[in-house]
Amino acid sequence: MPRFLAAKPDADLIRLPWNVPLESWPTAHLVALPRGISRHVVRFIQVGDDILAAKEILEEVAVHEYRQLTELRRLDVPAVEPVGVVLGRNDSEGNVLDPILLTRHLPFSLPYRALFYSGVKLDTVNRLLDAMVVLFARLHLTGFYWGDVSLSNILFRRDAGEFAAYLVDAETGELHAKLTDGQRAHDLQIATTNLFGEFSDLEAGGMLDPSLQPQWLVETIVDRYHSLWAELTGVEEFSESELYRLEGRVRRLNALGFDVAEIDVSTSADGSTIRMQPKVVEAGHHSRRLMRLTGLDAEEHQARRLLNDMDTFRAKIPGTMTESVAAHKWLMEVFEPATSRIPPDLAGKRDPAQFFHELLDYRWYMSQRENHEVSIVEAASGYVADVLRTLPDEEMSNVMPVGQELLNKYDPSQGFADDEEEPPYDPWEDGANDPELPVSFGFDIEALRARERAKSRERDPG
Amino acid sequence: MATVSYRDASRIYPGSDRAAVNKLNLEIEDGEFMVLVGPSGCGKSTSLRMLAGLEEVNAGNIFIGDRDVTDLPPKDRDIAMVFQNYALYPHMTVADNMGFALKMQNVPKAERQKRVQEAAHLLGLEDFLSRKPKALSGGQRQRVAMGRAIVRQPQVFLMDEPLSNLDAKLRVSTRTQIAALQRRLGVTTVYVTHDQVEAMTMGDRVAVLKDGILQQVDSPLALYDTPNNLFVAGFIGSPAMNLMIGKVTEGGATIGDYTVPVPRETLAKADGDETVTLGIRPETFKISSTGQGIALDIAVVEELGADSYLYGTLAGLSEDELVNAPQIVARVGARTAPQKGEVVRLEIDPEHVHVFNNTTEDRIS
């Protein structure tokens, strides 16, 4: 009987065929969604109304990753939600099967294989790279050494006109109090190698827009990471007449979506030079403010857009009204009436915050066209009818990347279904596949002594 | 090719009052396969990461060849971490999967092809070079991953538990392949594992660590035959060495009703303690033909091929003493094996008895 390690066990989980290797699960339980490549067996599975990602890995790794993901969520880092680990699996003949780590499919997420397709706009690519860099810097600020940064381990979500990136795989991750420069540099080095490999793989599969060069993409990511890191943590020195630079730095960080919780300012002995360095920087400046005021959970850029609309709304109210009262009024009179226009059958097209962001753009054009300020509810009806209905469903994006047909639609790691003849003979495999080969767990001291004797005979044949 | 030297190298994590690695001194020879082994938290991975540049060195130095790399960033150290990432790219050929990192570093195409070809030859992958990796077995994938490190021609290979996520069978065969390949390549290799069997079968020398302190560095046989202290004695060997407390008496140490002969000069090194610890490997016990020896009350007999392992406790213990009595393991020929429930006398060649000081835990024999 399998055991479940989970914070909130789900009864539907118990009925799944845990006694079957994940690779051989009946397709009735599987969902073919686009995703990256992986070195383990990974499948999307349907559990009640939920879609979960299931990964078959060794117990130690599964439990480590489950705990890392839990910790990252607690630290408010964008990462997929761990659901549990299924341990103690056996097949029908009693053979031990590796545990399965379960994470929740991130709704409205878009894997890279569906994004860097042929014909993608350079602008979109730039935004994807920025999202990746922000995620990377956030993880490093938190003290998280990823150890396996790659496109396959990142999911993207729409975030107003930008993208937000999420960590998917924490298998090799380690949480430290603070990362050393060496750890960051090494993480970045792994990232460049992995990303270069994956972009080259997309290129080889005809899935990368020909205008994009893997080398350029990787260099851009590294450059942007360095400049973002410098902005987030770098030391700035200026004379006492330039004190405004202190506030300027904080504003720039806010604009990048970061809050400065602690800043280190010191003055030279003669008082002429001021040195400052942000010490504690936290991401989510706008999304935290939106959450505090309205209880809405949105991505960073979406939050900024919503807050702007809320601030404009408040400015138009005669007299003075506190921010929190105005926020409540905005929520009841603007946001909710607008988003309640989304018919249930179209709810999977956009999440409410993204819908509202796109609706604001739509209303602006509509007002221009009609030469008067269109109400948000009226615009919402128009947007649903004209635009939303035509968009692809993204709650569970099944937009498959262009290219040939996959060998296994549930596993992109296996590549395309092109014909290949029998694999060549490999003498190295004989040993590994030899059923007679004893799997010795113990330690054979006699074999070691024999080896040493043979070695010393070699050295001294006399 | 290069040597690696740790000189008084320490790592102390911020906020911790104990060094994760405490004044490590280790000289690794050019071309040597050095394994760092020890239980979780012993500092083996931290030591490797200090060499890789992933952990700060708070005191002391690390040299690769005659270059002090203590403060160099990882990328300037000319090392390769093997198996860190062995995701294979499904749309690229095996050759491209091995050589793509060279392409990123702008190594000219002809040079790239040459290095890939050489690595493929070493790894027996030549016939696979133009194929896609989808049909490769787990072992073949590992070899492609190893090829990725080989084509970079680093001075030192670093491997941190590379086999930890392979199944048991693949682990055994890959272990042999890595060791053989390292010998052919002759590249200095530092390998970290928690598995002493892996350490003993792969390393030219093995460094045993505990609580951040190097306990002993020696060839596998020397570690087995002359462990420096109680920790190494108990850690190396499977099944483990029997460690039994003996009361110091005239001419030996008494266990139960039997006195194991120990030379007087060895006993003198017990620093006046009333007891010493005797270490006896399971295979050095023999069933006594004279009726003399340690009395073993056999609880389990396990037959493994030509040998039988006898598991039990010292005979003649009271109920209270049994609760904390250490298990004794003896390996005897299967043909002479007694039955479960019997009491046998085990004799030992005094030459094969390891004696440890109970206060310092150091070897005194």
From TrEMBL, chain A:
The ranges of region (Disordered) come to: 409-436
The UniProt record lists the DUF4032 domain at 227-388
| Coiled-coil regions, chain positions | none
* Listed InterPro entries: DUF4032, Kinase-like_dom_sf
Q: Where is the composition biased (Acidic residues)?
A: 417-433
SUPFAM superfamilies under this entry? Protein kinase-like (PK-like) (SSF56112)
Q: Which domain of life is it from?
A: Bacteria
Q: Which Pfam families match?
A: DUF4032, Kdo
The protein's name in its UniProt record: DUF4032 domain-containing protein
State the species of origin: Tessaracoccus rhinocerotis
UniProtKB/TrEMBL annotation, chain B:
Q: Which GO MF terms are attached to this record?
A: ABC-type transporter activity; ATP binding; ATP hydrolysis activity
Its keywords, alphabetically, are: ATP-binding, Nucleotide-binding, Transport
Q: Where is the ABC transporter domain?
A: 4-236
Is NADP one of the keywords UniProt gives this record?
no
Q: Tell me the Gene Ontology biological-process terms attached to this UniProt entry.
A: carbohydrate transport
| Stored InterPro entries | AAA+_ATPase, ABC_transporter-like_ATP-bd, ABC_transporter-like_CS, ABC_transpr_MalK-like, ABC_transpr_MalK/UgpC-like, Mo/tungstate-bd_C_term_dom, NA-bd_OB-fold, OB_MalK-like
PANTHER family, alphabetically?
A: MALTODEXTRIN IMPORT ATP-BINDING PROTEIN MSMX, OSMOPROTECTIVE COMPOUNDS UPTAKE ATP-BINDING PROTEIN GGTA
Q: What is this protein called?
A: sn-glycerol-3-phosphate ABC transporter ATP-binding protein UgpC
Source species of the chain = Tessaracoccus rhinocerotis
